[in-house]
Design goal:
Length: 274
């Protein structure tokens, strides 16, 4: 972006006052400020109608100063998240949740946007020199935000991919028998400390995507954050493991910034060719 005075712009839409969502949105805003990105936060009331929310999305789609749009989920139950995501311009869908971007990931089309958390997990593996080619990777969890895109990224051809991927989930039989064979385990189940030493083989690499609040009377906030992995007992047997907090979370935000930059670059190149 050195050739112009373009400033990548990210809009984050928060509906309601869910404490975890408010905290995530705050981190995203802080990171934008630190990097000098243009940042817009829309905070809408929990009883906001779908029509009003879709009106804001349409305005952001049309706003030339905005290159990335993220609607924080979960939304209050009266709002249809799928309908909201479908209304986002795929060229500004920095979450990678729109059907066009899901398809581009499956097609290995590099112009698409990949969801930030799996992209951050892949980047962690790459930066740590952990080979995925030929590795047995077990992804625990099948969500649209983490599990499914993670599996697609790791089985794609090329650097950071080429893995033999197995996806397990809450209905899988004998989880430990499957995960304990893996060279790399990606834990994205959303259940506090549910993976123990019986799930992880000696020398495995573990990426813990879980961010769970558990009650903690000793903390001034009354809770603390733990992952999906029982870190204290699992860490000693691992070649590498990510902590919670401070592991995958900051990578998710870094990838959001990176996707916003990519959206800005792509939008302006397309316009230059018009
Ligand atoms: N809620 C938790 N993680 C995410 C995310 O990556 N994107 C959005 N939009 N909402 C989330």
């Amino acid at each position: 972006m050195a050739q112009s005075n373009l400033k990548p712009g990210l809009a984050v839409v928060l509906v309601g006052d869910d404490p975890a969502s408010t905290a995530y949105v705050g981190s995203k805003e802080r990171q934008c400020r630190e990097l000098g990105l243009h940042s817009v936060k829309l905070h809408l009331p929990a009883n906001c109608s779908e029509e009003v929310l879709l009106g804001h999305v349409a305005a952001l789609n049309a706003d030339p100063a905005i290159h990335g749009i993220l609607v924080q989920c979960p939304l209050p139950p009266h709002l249809n998240y799928a309908a909201v995501v479908a209304a986002i311009n795929p060229a500004k869908d920095v979450d990678g949740f729109h059907a066009v971007n899901v398809a581009k990931l499956a097609l290995e089309d590099p112009t698409g946007f990949v969801p930030c958390t799996p992209l951050g997990c892949q980047r962690l593996l790459l930066e740590s020199g952990i080979e995925t080619a030929g590795a047995e990777v077990v992804v625990v969890g099948r969500s649209m935000i983490v599990g499914k895109p993670m599996a697609m990224l790791l089985m794609a051809k090329g650097r950071g991919g080429d893995a033999s991927v197995t996806v397990v989930h809450s209905r899988s039989r004998d989880l430990a028998a499957i995960t304990s064979r893996a060279d790399i385990v990606i834990a994205a189940l959303g259940r506090p400390r549910c993976l123990g030493p019986q799930h992880i083989r000696e020398g495995a690499v573990v990426i813990d995507v879980g961010i769970n609040r558990v009650p903690d009377a000793a903390s001034p906030r009354g809770y603390r954050l733990v992952g999906d992995v029982d870190f204290e007992v699992v860490a000693p047997r691992c070649r590498a493991i990510t902590p919670v907090p401070g592991g995958v979370g900051p990578m998710t935000i870094a990838m959001l910034m990176s996707n916003t930059l990519k959206a800005c670059a792509q939008i302006h190149q397309w316009r230059a060719q018009d």
